[in-house]
């Protein structure tokens, strides 16, 4: 415990001493004239008000006092909060709810222990062996054995059969034995379905953890009140299903939820929204946001729904890396989001409707022409057939639906926050951190919504005084960088010349890229080329004076780049030399073979004239041309690789010089291999065509294999080098 916190309270805040801590901390804040900030007698003025600076100073002092007097566990709940009032409320809710849960669990353990003693006797856990047969039957889903046991021991139907006071229904539900649960529900009275175990969970709670939709339907049909029962942690079955990502059960329960149920408490609604986002159920999250708009600005453990969404880059189109064919399918498939309607209870789907569901909606529509209905039906039938023929279409279509839903969810969250919160400072606190996090992951959709609804947010600084352009450069997010350059917004992002470590934007470009971004490029040499490209582009963007500025370690940007990338330079040199050495050996072998073949022509030469016997044959001309081309191209290739081996390997060499040499060397090596195989084919054709034509054709066809294999193995690397060296690369100017 620090000396500062000792001066305020006797011991730091934990779950066990909240009552004492609250009294001491309140007295301290009153004595320092800071309590008005916490109880909101001193309300936050507008940012342009002259009194705002004084209020912010007092708020910071009060918040610091609260945070420094917290233990490690308690501090984790308030470390991201910027308001002393919010921190005080957060700690109160956390400690009181935790204490209440602890007390209730303790009391329940005592009462359940007493109850088990009354039912099973005083021999403790040994009496549970009486129900071992029933437990095993529920575990394995053996209903016949369980039914015989229950007939002999009727009290076992609702008795706790393990140390956690689970009933047979609890056990079967948790292990997903659907038929067992359905049969057991039939013979249980409705009120017995609500029996809770030692932690307050009903069997319906356990269905949401490991059960099926059929179980949920059977139990909820018999006792609808199960939907509203909370366990001792205050968790409802709906929230539990979202927490455990049981999508089939979750979709059924959400469909049963009324607006009143979803709006019971703002905390529950916000927690449900966060869990729906975590479970990738963006359709239901959209529907919940429509029905409970205020959850957009509500914190859950110090974070909003936008904070959680900003850490899910795969949910957005801008961060997906489809292959060539998947990109074509993605642009071709048609996906529409269902419209929201409170009247017909139709909520957003997280998977596209099946053909049967679409057919029902088509047949139920009386406002469309018969021709349109027929076309809709044919369209749905066509999609079913295509998905059977090409299974990847279904996954691409599902991904596109998720991308559309995630984008719309971000847009609605932005709009709801701006409608609910009028204070600009609070808006920035709600939208700024998610934008910074989304920039780190390269989610362009967040930036687009920012420019559309709240453009001033692009100047929002993070904890290190870095705006989104700085964050994009530091994390090598080229799509964010390009989007800012395209809109011209980068010119306005020089408000913060330096971060708290005195790094300007050129220093950030000089730092080594994060591993996940660096590994997107194969080979240390190409990784260094990418880093050099980033540094050169940012160098053009930054004012010339930035090149001479030093950071807190006394390093200029160029020197910082050399320090950060010295290992990458060494690895790039090794990679280049190993690649060049291997290719040099291959090129030298081809030179030797082709040089020898030029003087040992197929069929020999005429003894009297010295001319080749097949000099008039077309195949012989192919032999001569391909042999000469193979010799020249392999010689060029070997010279390129030798120049790589003798290079000085300076940093700037990796930007253009070395990649260009490697590109030429690999291209010439490929041409020499292709020409060598052509030479071989023409020789076979000359020697065997007249007598064994079929064999010559087969052997000639097999010669394509090594050429194709070399192309497939080296083509991705070759394309990357050409793209990054000669193309627009990762930047679009």
Taken together, the total number of domains comes to 4
Total DSSP helices? 35
The total of beta strands comes to 0
Mean pLDDT: 82
Helix content range: 55-70%
Q: What coarse outline follows from CA principal-axis ratios?
A: extended
Strand content: under 5%
Unreliable residue stretches? 115-125, 341-347, 352-368
**Quaternary organisation of the protein chains:** single chain
Largest sheet: none
Keywords: Membrane, Transmembrane, Transmembrane helix
Organism: Nelumbo nucifera
Domain PGG: 575-686
Transmembrane segments: 585-605, 620-642, 662-688, 694-713
Q: What's the helix and strand layout?
A:
Elements: H1 3-6, H2 18-31, H3 35-38, H4 52-68, H5 72-78, H6 84-120, H7 132-140, H8 143-152, H9 168-174, H10 178-187, H11 203-210, H12 213-222, H13 237-243, H14 247-256, H15 259-262, H16 266-278, H17 282-291, H18 305-309, H19 324-332, H20 355-363, H21 370-389, H22 392-420, H23 424-441, H24 444-453, H25 468-474, H26 478-487, H27 505-510, H28 515-518, H29 524-541, H30 557-564, H31 566-599, H32 618-645, H33 657-688, H34 693-702, H35 704-726
Helix pairs in contact: 4-6, 7-8, 7-9, 9-11, 10-12, 11-13, 12-14, 13-14, 13-16, 16-17, 17-22, 20-21, 22-24, 23-24, 23-25, 29-31, 31-32, 31-33, 32-33, 33-34, 33-35
Domain PGG: 575-686
Transmembrane segments: 585-605, 620-642, 662-688, 694-713
Protein name: PGG domain-containing protein
Describe the structure.
The protein has helices spanning 3-6, 18-31, 35-38, 52-68, 72-78, 84-120, 132-140, 143-152, 168-174, 178-187, 203-210, 213-222, 237-243, 247-256, 259-262, 266-278, 282-291, 305-309, 324-332, 355-363, 370-389, 392-420, 424-441, 444-453, 468-474, 478-487, 505-510, 515-518, 524-541, 557-564, 566-599, 618-645, 657-688, 693-702, 704-726. The protein is mostly helical. The chain has 4 domains: 3-98, no CATH class; 123-257, Ankyrin repeat-containing domain (Serine Threonine Protein Phosphatase 5, Tetratricopeptide repeat, Alpha Horseshoe); 293-420, no CATH class; 569-726.
